[in-house]
Write a structure and sequence with these properties.
Layout: E1 12-16, H1 42-54, E2 59-63, H2 73-81, E3 88-92, H3 101-107, E4 111-115, H4 121-128, H5 133-146, E5 151-157, H6 166-176, E6 179-184, H7 195-200, H8 205-211, E7 215-221, E8 226-232, E9 237-243, H9 249-253, E10 257-260, E11 265-267, E12 276-278, H10 285-295
Parallel strand pairs: 1-2, 1-10, 2-3, 3-4, 4-5, 5-6, 6-9
Antiparallel strand pairs: 7-8, 8-9, 10-11, 11-12
Helix pairs in contact: 1-2, 2-3
Bound molecules: S-adenosylmethionine (SAM).
Length: about 300
């Protein structure tokens, strides 16, 4: 197993399979990269996963861009499954999911996160630049039907834009049998002063306060030490996770992952565009991975 200089083990890779998307969410961090057309082949992804697995990595998250734009995502997952016994998951906007959920599951995908930042057509369009809310909802149903477990809904909370949908989203997730992730709008130190961030950033501790009397259980997700609540909605219960990275040393201290960009680089942190280690076409990927892990440091501390 590899450890960084802060004693944090490496057990997870977050692999960006492309850096293009059919949605244009105004707040998107693009996983700490710029939009670009480069992407690794299934063979290249398998090789980096194979090497990482020998170093103790046992969980993989695929992300983008929009991963389902790639027609060969199933092949990528099949190749990954050969080396990874633990959790393989995917984050997607859900637009192309309805017809792919079953084949993704069959390829070896365990679970899925589907982004949905509003249940209202107009707002959904304002946030994502896309009209396809009904396709996303069908995608959620298809994922549940295919047996991807759990299905998590990623809801980035945007002050004044979707903060009035918090209760509605919890009921939506409860009715579907999905987990709801409230995600804090995040940025790096420079981004904190931008107009968009100042306007739309919402402190998720307000949600915790609001839910206080309805919480019937608390646990933690080991990655980033994120809080998980069981919330009683009266007629139903829902599992809610709060992802609060901003200025949160606890979040960074419990980070155990390395990023792989669509260009074939290891990136140490979402907020460290300056800390990338290119491995594409290199012979000694293992050594480059070790270098990248050694360079990791908690961003918020
Ligand atoms: N296109 C896919 C999607 O929409 O899920 C995958 C890529 S997207 C970059 C991965 C996740 O990051 C999504 O849930 C998205 O909503 C979230 N995200 C993007 N920008 C963010 C930001 N500035 N703060 C918090 N979450 C963000």
């Amino acid at each position: 197993m590899l450890f960084d200089n802060y004693g944090r083990p490496l057990n997870s890779l977050r692999i960006q399979v492309n850096a293009v998307c059919n949605f244009k969410c105004f707040f998107c961090h693009m996983e700490g990269t710029e939009e670009n057309a480069e992407h690794l082949s299934p063979e290249e992804i398998e090789e980096v996963v194979r090497i990482a697995s020998l170093k103790g990595v046992n969980r993989i998250k695929f992300t983008g861009g929009e991963p389902l734009i790639r027609r060969d995502l199933e092949e990528i997952i099949t190749r990954t499954r050969k080396h990874i016994k633990g959790d393989i998951s995917l984050t997607t906007n859900g637009f192309f999911l309805e017809s792919r959920a079953k084949s993704l599951k069959e390829a070896g995908l365990d679970r899925i996160n589907i982004s949905l930042h509003s249940l209202h057509k107009n707002r959904f369009r304002i946030i994502t630049g896309n009209e396809g809310i009904s396709s996303v909802e069908k995608g959620i149903d298809a994922a549940l039907e295919a047996g991807l477990k759990p299905v998590k809904i990623n809801f980035v909370v945007l002050n004044g834009l979707n903060t009035d949908e918090i209760d509605e989203m919890m009921m939506f997730a409860a009715e579907k049998g999905a987990i709801l992730q409230f995600i804090e709008y995040e940025t790096d130190r420079n981004g904190e002063n931008t107009e968009d961030f100042r306007r739309y950033h919402y402190d998720l501790r307000n949600i915790e306060k609001r839910l206080k009397d309805k919480i019937v259980g608390v646990s933690y997700n080991s990655l980033h030490h994120r809080k998980k609540y069981r919330v009683n909605l009266g007629s139903r219960e829902v599992e809610v996770e709060l992802v609060m990275p901003m200025r949160n040393p606890d979040f960074c201290n419990n980070c155990t992952r390395l990023r792989v960009t669509s260009k074939g680089q290891f990136q140490t942190c979402l907020n460290r565009k300056d800390q990338v280690f290119s491995f594409r076409g290199e012979k000694n990927i293992e050594k480059i991975m070790e270098e990248a892990v050694k360079a990791r440091e908690p961003y918020w501390r």
